[in-house]
Specification:
The structure holds two protein chains of two kinds. By secondary structure, chain A is an alpha+beta fold. Chain A has 40 helices and ten strands. In chain A, a hairpin with a 3-residue loop joins strand 3 and strand 4. Chain A is extended. Chain A starts with 9 loop residues before the first helix and ends in a 7-residue tail after the last strand. Helix content of chain B is 46%, strand content 26%. Classes of the chains: A alpha+beta, B alpha+beta. At the A-B interface, helix 1, helix 3, helix 5, helix 7 and helix 9 of A face strand 2, helix 1, strand 3, helix 2 and helix 4 of B. Chain A: One of its GO terms (cellular component) is AP-1 adaptor complex. Chain A: It is found in: Cytoplasmic vesicle, Clathrin-coated vesicle membrane; Golgi apparatus.
């Protein structure tokens, strides 16, 4: 006989699975077993039903799908015998969940079993109901459960109590029916009933304020008495755990008292004595006793203030904290977190011990302690604590560095008493764990540095020193490169030396070495390299002796395969070679970045999907050039020109000078707004890249709730540029264009009346490409004319070519007939089709479109679909 | 609802019993078990018995080759859960007599019945070993 027929015993199956050497063997055994169980199910095999279900439970535990066995559970539950029902209910609880329709079918069986004459079967049904009951079942079966709360057997009453918890959580309206039966459970003597009854009351307080009031008025005295009897009870072997009678019941009672005492001075008063008794008399040399003490402290901390009790509680925590048992220390740290809001002085007293816990070898304790320390920091102890934490950063293991770094940075930023200290600490963190520092942290550091003119020299020299030893920390290198670019001459000339500094001698070549090493380092990422290019351009002007080397570096990158670097290098090369006379003006030092704006932008946090990028868009001050031109103004430093520099968007400059990442971060997408004449310039100077192309995600654009997930859409919602910005566009644009002429560059300038938009690749597959060209009808900004062009990339001709498009409700779409319905092989743009889209939310939302393309190739129908999210904004 | 799941896992990381009190599908369970077991099994005896993972706090205790892991929410008393694990082990010990991994494997349903008598919907329901086992013995007599 085949050993894996449905006749195999459970035992044999388990043995067979255990004997498997590899995961593949195990899968094979399980597959065979499942197949035979399925066969047994389809034959409606009666005899082995519960054995098969037991097998399925085992298979389920191993993590294989077992849904096909669900109906078997129902059949077993419906059968008359206790053992069948037992295994059926167990299967129900393990294999099913409340989300499945099968539950509907089981409601009736449960109802019958709840009314069964055999109390053990009633118990089974209650247990299952308590574990899997859904809202509908709760409504249907609540009366039965309510009745069973008064059943003669305590084992049924306790299960009914827990079942009631599930019911009132699913349907809070039903809570009022349970108030009286629940209150009467508190008078029980049976521990199980009392335990579950107290739990029921606690949960009822959470869902119903009526119940809360009722228990507060009627039950506190009784509860206090129960607790008192319990603590003073003589030895009860059945419930005794290391000398304490039923610690679980103790804890439940204390939890209920906490809920009842919260915010009620009278109620708190009644329980004072018993809490004091528990806190002082409970043995603390065993885990069970400590569990009770711990719960008692939680209760004391939550109920209304009673000075004496609080002192007692904090003392217990102090004792816990100095315990040698790590479990006890862990809960102490946990509790101190809560205590800090009540009595921070008392917690401060334990600061030294907590700091020791940060350095513990146990990750759980370290994490708790670090969070606690973070809450303990204030203006007075920040220097001390930061020093300790930074010292520890040097020796900690890498897993913990990320958390620790984030916390240190946050502390330093929040409580820094002076800039010098801030810069010093940040440099230490950067040199120690620069790779863990988040972007916004080092951006903030640069803002602070620019705002401290007397420390420029000091900072750049410190950074120079730091980079020599910790050149592998990327963020440190970035900050250093930026500062050397800006303040390189201070590094060489040793200007503004502070008393605390050791003098160093750095030559111009040394300074450039740092930049050159960084750009040449294969592990440097694109942002760092781009920053290096800018820095070297700046140095070429400050250090004439190095200009040859700089132009070599720049020229070397003209051939870079990374578009951004190549573009920059070509532009910079042209500045160096052709425009020597304006070079020094171009690379003047950055104006001071505005701290307030930057912190404001950080605070106005972005949606989580784009959390790595910098805050929301800056506000555009009225009558000032639009933001796209602002960074330009800044990079070139035309501040003497007649273009008004927007005073309020300092952070924006930073963003654009620092945020050179090529990933489609929102800021760059923003700079792609309002593609007008200025954009040509913008592209020339390569601040940011054009918005992401071919962002053909599969989001369902038609459901608005999902729109938000696409970064482009998020921006659209945020963007809504003010009209003033729009009107000023041409002004800013044209003055830029004049300047452009100065470059002598030959650019085909777009017609300046009305904005133009770059063409996009709307869709591209291995066989087909669709490009969109945009134009606007004069006088109706809402309407966009799109010219779609189709390219056949394959060597086969396409016939019956049909292009269809769909748009969400806020758009209206009109499709003109296509120029042809056949697309010759390897042809470019041989079909064109015009679309007209009106955007009723113009300025608020950008266009989105889904498209579907049908065609025949070699007599086979082909369907291609896609979604276009990369429309230029503001269409 | 304090207890979210109870797991029994051997030293090799194989699950021997799993009971969840909130719904997770099979893939989520496998992932969760893998992550938690990896975290807990690498810890030493001296380290504390609590591990924070996702939004769970896992309280674990090791008995010979078997790890008992209980996932709880933030409001739960960790020390009490530690005591509960011990109670569970003592109960199984009384029934099986020196319980071992194989007892649980080959009597999975009984282990489940015991757990079911002790925890329901994430709450502790009974703490007396006699009361818990009387229901199991009844079952044995019936079959």
């Amino acid at each position: 006989m085949n050993p894996f027929s449905s006749g195999t015993r459970l035992r044999d199956m388990i043995r067979a699975i255990r004997a498997c050497k590899t995961a593949a063997e195990e899968r094979a055994v399980v597959r065979k077993e499942c197949a035979s169980i399925r066969a047994a199910i389809s034959e409606n095999d009666q005899d082995y039903r519960h054995r098969n279900l037991a097998k399925l439970m085992f298979i389920h535990m191993l993590g294989y799908p077992t849904h096909f066995g669900q109906m078997e559970c129902l059949k077993l539950i419906a059968s008359p015998g206790f053992p069948e029902k037992r295994i059926g209910y167990l299967g129900l609880m393990l294999l099913l969940d409340e989300r499945q329709e099968v539950l509907m079918l089981v409601t009736n069986s449960i109802k019958q079993d709840l009314n069964h004459t055999n109390q053990y079967i009633v118990g089974l049904a209650l247990c299952a109901l308590g574990n899997i009951c859904s809202a509908e079942m709760a409504r249907d079966l609540a009366p039965e459960v309510e009745r069973l709360l008064q059943f003669r057997d305590p084992n049924i009453r306790k299960k009914a109590a827990l079942c009631s918890i599930r019911i009132i959580k699913k349907v809070p309206d039903l809570a009022e029916n349970f108030i009286n039966p629940a209150a009467s459970l508190l008078k029980e003597k049976h521990h199980g009933v009392l335990l579950t009854g107290v739990q029921l009351c606690t949960d009822m307080c959470n869902v119903s304020s009526e119940a809360h009031e009722h228990f507060k008025k009627k039950c506190i005295d009784g509860l206090v008495k129960v607790l008192k009897d319990l603590t003073n009870s003589p030895y009860a072997p059945e419930y005794d755990i290391s000398g304490i009678s039923d610690p679980f019941l103790h804890i439940r009672l204390l939890k209920l008292l906490r809920v009842l005492g919260q915010g009620d001075a009278d109620a708190s008063d009644i329980m004072n004595d018993i809490l004091a008794q528990v806190a002082t008399k409970t043995e603390s040399n065993k885990n069970a006793g400590n569990a009770i003490l711990y719960q008692c402290v939680v209760t004391i901390m939550s109920i209304e203030d009673n000075g004496g009790l609080r002192v007692l509680a904090v003392n217990i925590l102090g004792r816990f904290l100095s315990s040698r048992d790590n479990n006890i220390r862990y809960v102490a740290l946990n509790m101190l977190m809560k205590a800090i809001a009540l009595d921070s002085q008392a917690v401060q007293r334990h600061r030294v011990t907590i700091l020791e816990c940060v350095k513990d070898s146990d990750a759980s304790i370290r994490k708790r302690a670090l969070e606690l320390i973070y809450l303990l920091v204030n203006e007075n102890n920040v220097k001390l604590l930061t020093k300790e934490l930074i010292d520890y950063l040097e020796v900690t293991d890498p897993d913990f560095k990320e958390d620790l770094t984030a916390k240190i940075c946050s502390i330093v930023e929040k409580f820094s008493p002076e800039k010098l200290w801030y810069i010093d600490q940040m440099l230490k963190v950067l040199s120690e764990a620069g790779n863990f520092v988040k972007d916004d942290v080092w951006h903030a550091l640069i803002v602070v540095i620019t705002n401290a003119p007397n420390l420029h020299g000091y900072t750049v020299r410190s950074l120079y020193k730091a980079v020599q030893t910790a050149g592998d920390q990327e963020t440190l290198v970035r900050v250093a490169v930026w500062c050397i670019g800006e303040y390189g001459e201070l590094l060489v000339s040793n200007t503004g030396v502070l008393d605390v500094e050791d003098p160093i001698t750095v030559t111009e070549a040394d300074a450039l070495d740092v930049v050159e090493t960084a750009i040449g380092n294969p592990s440097s990422d694109l942002t760092t390299r781009a920053m290096c290019l800018v820095a070297s351009l700046k140095l070429s002007s400050h250090f004439p002796s190095c200009s040859k080397r700089v132009s070599d570096i720049v020229r070397h990158h003209k051939g870079s395969l990374v578009l951004e670097l190549q573009q920059r290098a070509i532009e910079f090369n042209s500045i160096i070679e052709k425009h020597g006379k304006i070079r020094s003006t171009l690379v003047e030092r950055m104006p001071v970045l505005d701290e307030a704006t930057f912190s404001g932008r950080r605070a106005g946090s972005m949606p989580p999907s784009v959390s790595t990028s910098q805050g929301a868009l800056p506000k555009i001050p009225n009558g000032v050039a639009k933001p796209t031109s602002a960074p330009l103004v800044d990079l070139l430093d035309f501040s003497s020109d007649d273009i008004p520099v927007p005073g309020g968007s300092g952070g924006d400059f930073l963003q654009d000078l620092l945020g050179v990442d090529i990933s489609p971060s929102p800021s760059q997408v923003t700079s792609g707004t309002q593609k007008s004449g200025t954009d040509v310039l913008l592209d020339l100077l390569s601040i940011g890249t054009p918005p992401a192309q071919s962002n053909l995600s599969t989001l369902d654009i038609l459901s608005p709730s999902q729109d938000i997930k696409s970064p482009v859409d998020v921006l659209t919602k945020l963007a809504s540029p003010s009209p003033s910005a729009q009107t000023s566009t041409p002004v800013g644009g044209s003055s830029m264009l004049d300047l452009l002429d100065d470059f002598g560059t030959t650019l085909s300038l777009p017609e300046t009346n009305g904005p133009t938009y770059p063409a996009i690749i709307a869709f591209e597959s291995s066989s087909l490409k669709v490009t969109f060209n945009f134009s606007k009808e004069p006088g109706s900004p809402q309407t966009t004319l799109i010219e779609a062009r189709f390219t056949n990339k394959s060597p086969n001709a396409y016939s019956n070519f049909v292009f269809q498009a769909a748009v969400p409700k806020f758009l209206q779409l009109h499709l003109d007939p296509a120029s042809s319905n056949t697309l010759p092989a390897n042809s470019n743009d041989s079909i064109t089709q015009k679309l007209r889209v009106s955007n009723s939310q113009h300025g608020k939302k950008s266009l989105v479109m889904r498209l579907r393309i049908n065609y025949k190739v070699n007599d086979k129908d082909v369907l291609e679909e896609g979604q276009i999210n990369n429309f230029p904004r503001d269409l | 609802m304090g207890i979210r799941f109870v797991l029994m896992v051997n030293k090799q990381g194989q699950t021997r019993l799993a009971q969840y009190y909130e719904y997770l599908n099979v893939e989520e369970r496998r992932a969760l078990e893998g992550e938690i077991v990896r975290k807990c099994l690498t810890r030493t005896q001296q380290q504390c018995s609590f591990v924070e993972h996702r939004n769970y706090k896992v309280v674990y205790r090791r008995y010979a080759s078997l790890f008992f892991l209980v996932g709880v929410d933030n409001e739960e008393n960790e020390l009490a859960i530690l005591e509960f694990i011990h109670l569970l082990v003592e109960t199984m010990d009384r029934h099986f007599g020196n319980v071992c991994e194989l007892d649980i494997m080959f009597h999975l349903e009984k282990a489940h019945f015991m757990l079911e008598e002790m925890v329901m919907n994430g709450c502790i329901i009974e703490t007396s070993k006699t009361n818990i086992l009387s229901q199991i013995q009844l079952m044995e007599r019936a079959s």
